[in-house]
Amino acid sequence: MNPKDIFVEEMKKRTKKFGVDVILFCDSFRQSKATSVITYQLIKSATSTGANYRAACRGRSRAEFFSKISIVVEEADESLFWLEVINDSKLSENKTELKRLTNECTEILKIVTKSKDTTYKNINH
Predict the structure, then answer these.
(1) How far is Cα 56 from Cα 58, in angstroms, rounded to an integer?
(2) Which of 58, 50, 59, 65 is nearest to 119 (CA)?
(3) What's the DSSP call for residue 31?
(4) For the chain, which end, N or C, has fewer CB atoms within 10 Å of the first or last residue's CB respectively?
(5) Number of H helices and number of E strands within the chain?
(6) E-strand spans in the chain?
(7) Angle at 31 between CA 27 and CA 36, to 5 degrees
(8) Among candidates 78, 72, 85, which has minimal Cα distance to 115?
(9) In this predicted model, what pLDDT tens digit does every residue of 1-16 receive, in sequence order?
(10) What does the buried/exposed string (b/e) look like for 19-57 if buried means 16 or more CB atoms within 10 Å of the residue's CB?
(11) Residue 63: how many CB atoms within 10 A of its CB?
(12) Crossing angle of helices 62-89/3-26, nearest 10°?
């Protein structure tokens, strides 16, 4: 495999692991009226990040890839939002895992945003 293919496979694994780790993390939340809503939203966006990344990798054209990777950016950014809400509302006492997931989400977001921006430039130039 060439370096690009290796990178793509690693990102598929990384975004899937992020989704799974979020699911496991949500089990640590203290119970409140907001817990079920926030858990649902975070799990939905975190798992969608990985699912849509895989879909983007199967894009049949640059335009289709751009469309799908744009969704990945949105879902990763939404995941980051929910992680920030969890931090601010103190829904989880597991600060170490919250920080790790926030850092991982931020890194994924930076990577897919760069990919989106590069694809946009390639399509429009």
Answers:
(1) 5
(2) 65
(3) P
(4) C
(5) 4, 0
(6) none
(7) 70
(8) 72
(9) 899 889 999 999 999 9
(10) bebbeebbeebeeeeebeebbeebbbbbbbbbbbbebbb
(11) 11
(12) 30
Residue 63, token pair as written in the block: 């335009």
Q: Which of 35, 48, 39 is nearest to 76 (CA)?
A: 48
CA distances from residue 64 to 69, 71, 117 in whole angstroms, order as listed? 9, 11, 14
Question: How many whole angstroms separate alpha carbon 12 and alpha carbon 119?
Answer: 18
**Helices 95-124 + 35-57 axis angle, to 10:** 40
Tell me the C-alpha to C-alpha distance, in Å, between residue 71 and each of 10, 68, 74: 19, 5, 5
Residue type, 46: A
The identity of residue 122, as a single letter, is: N
pLDDT tens digits for range 69-119: 999 999 999 999 999 999 999 999 999 999 999 999 999 999 999 999 999
